[in-house]
Design brief:
With 505 residues, this protein is mainly alpha-helical. It contains 20 helices and 12 strands. The chain has helices spanning 27-42, 61-73, 97-109, 120-132, 148-156, 203-213, 229-238, 269-274, 279-287, 302-308, 323-336, 339-351, 365-375, 384-393, 400-405, 409-424, 428-434, 437-447, 452-463, 471-504; strands at 14-17, 46-49, 80-81, 113-116, 162-165, 172-176, 180-184, 192-195, 218-222, 245-249, 252-253, 319-320.
Length: 505
Amino acid sequence: MKQDAATMTAPAVRVRFAPAPTGALHVGGARTALFNYLFARHHRGAVVLRSEDTDLARSSVESESAIQSDLRWLGLDWDEGTDVGGPYAPYRQTERHERYAVAAARLLEIEAAYPCYCSAEELAAEREQAEARKLAPKYSGKCRLLTRAERSQLEREGRKPTLRFAMPQRDIYVEDLVRGSVHFPPDAIGDFVILKSDKTPTYNFAAVIDDSDMLISHVLRGDEHLPNTPRQVAVYEALELPLPLFAHVSMILAPDHHKLSKRHGATSVAEYREAGFLPEALVNYLALLGWSPGDDREFFTLHQLVELFFLERVSKSPAVFDLAKLRWFNAQYLRARSPDERTKLFADWARSDGRLETLPELSDATWRLAMTDALSDHVELLSDVPRELDALLSDPPLDERVTDALNDERVRQMLTDIARSAESAADAAAFEHAISKQSLQELGDRYGVKGRALFRPIRLAVTGSEHGIELPLLLRLLGPKRVARRIAAALAAGAHARQEQLRSG
């Protein structure tokens, strides 16, 4: 039997999700958070939510709160973090500078780091030279060789140094739990900055100190971070800190197989939330992007995903984000909701639209149920509800298709009867009886009109369209006043069209 990755290590499973609070939560980040959550909960481990907020110009508490809100909307929780505290606080990098300073001092002491006085212009010139020689840009390491006197002279000139890690020139191997053994050869990576000139830590340094301090056992993240791993491994080893296990999951690609970005449409969880996707549908879909349950099943609750999640089932290949598939998932989840739940969702979304917020019918429980019955098979997203409803309740254009359908005298008489029944209906029950499928068929029998010849002109007269919601449901939703008014308008338009034909003939 294949042993799962977590059972191969003695320490308790502790994972972290560490977004930078510089904007909205991307669906790729949400998938990473989900995989961390599923892995930890499967092994009854801990989830740490950390804030990598060292980008002072772009980070904000508002973004941090928004990310937390999106994660909670998805149904994900955490055991430690900026909002709930924990034994390894603080969980914001801007509040951990003392820890970074201590670790940096230790690296200086053992000569695993050194001050670098190179200006931005000098570094840019090095990059240009490397590119001209068709080499990967890499710092030359020239400041590593400076004498104490040369450093003192540069500081007297007013240069503020960064602190660079002295990258060991040897092979580094990473045993990745998803990708297997990954080799990084010597000379592939130059000495890199760990503290900026203002003493702000860089990602590759801060992440190591944070993960070590917080006893993170497994680092599950996107494979765009794979090139960072040898740098981090080298820092762990220099400080003689135990290494976590690494697992790099494939990135999510757009249908054109490029990185998913704004040009492909919505990319943040908030945008999908605002578009009317259900959290359980988005979670289910994201879980299947790069992970397989081992069989053909597609629908899972969050609890079921926790039970089934093994890293061995995570794919190395990039996953393609298919919006049509996500919409289909959402439609299935919407229809699986109970009628009462669906009705409340539909009504709430209808009221949220300025065109419908004062619609009197939304206060009628019977009508709200009729709306749900009528729309359920025609919406995939909750944002479809107000659009579909507004289109139905707005008077349709009376074009040639409508007037042509009324050329038959029998059809006109039949429509007149329907309008008269709608106007004279004493109550909702009487109207529903008049527009039932059986009543409409009986009316058609009376005028010798059946099948498509019966239903098509009625639908055209009241909606201007030949297709849509089942006719009795549609008429029930429109109500007797609208039905009578629209039929009268269609008959008048037909009469006018026939008169114009007689004049022109």
